[in-house]
Amino acid sequence: MNRRMFTAQFLTVGLAAAGVGLTGCTLAQGPEAETGEDGAQGVMTQELTVFRSPTCSCCGKWIEHMEAAGFQVQDEIAEDMTAVKQQYGVPANLASCHTTVADGYVIEGHIPAAYVQRLLTEKPDVAGIAVPGMPIGSPGMESGDYVEPYTVFSFTEDGNTETFVEHS
Fold first, then answer.
1. Which helix (H) or strand (E) holds 101?
2. Which of 23, 71, 88, 129 is in Cβ range 3.0-4.6 Å of 52 for a Cys bridge?
3. Residue span of the signal peptide, if any (predicted)?
4. DSSP state of 21
5. Which residue range(s) make up the domain with 78?
6. Is the dihedral of CA 42, 96, 100, 159 positive or negative?
């Protein structure tokens, strides 16, 4: 078993044992967008409702990342995150610790704001995007300068997945 797989399994089992549920977030696209200093189209008027476990601190850090990117965040604490994930159709193999819904899309896990912006701008024919697990170095999971390479997957309502972007 490689380190990445071990880490993902360890975190999944640990979260389950601690009773940390899975979370969900809702985005509604606003009428205006701005360009950030990195040249990416921003979402300065988009509202984001985040459903997260009351015990998950990394979700709060991810919220801060999204606010810094211009999203307006409504933070909703949910006691049963498994039910939230089921409600929004998050495939079990793509689950992480929080879920977002934006303009009908599901955004699962520690996805950088730029990729969420890309999803909402390009509007591909998918149900959503996801980063399974909790990769070290992803937004909310920072650990110094170390960034574990990870894949952001897109998925359809019937569970088909493909790579949306490789992040390293």
1. strand 99-102
2. 23
3. 1-28
4. P
5. 3-167
6. positive
* Tokens found for residue 119: 């999803």
Structure tokens at 164: 């949306």
Residue found by looking up tokens 């390009």 in the block: 122
Tell me, what DSSP letter sits at residue 74? E
* Residue range 138-149: mean pLDDT, rounded: 94
User: pLDDT tens digits, residue range 47-74?
Assistant: 877 889 888 888 889 989 999 999 888 7
DSSP one-letter string for 92-128: GGG--S-EEEETTEEEESS--HHHHHHHHHH--SSSE
Please list the residues that pair with 105 across neighbouring strands.
102
| Sign (positive or negative) of CA dihedral 6, 8, 9, 13 | positive
Q: In whole angstroms, what is the distance from residue 117 CA to residue 114 CA?
A: 5
pTM above 0.90, yes or no: no
Number of domains in the chain: 1
**Distance in angstroms (rounded) separating the CA atoms of residues 137 and 167:** 10
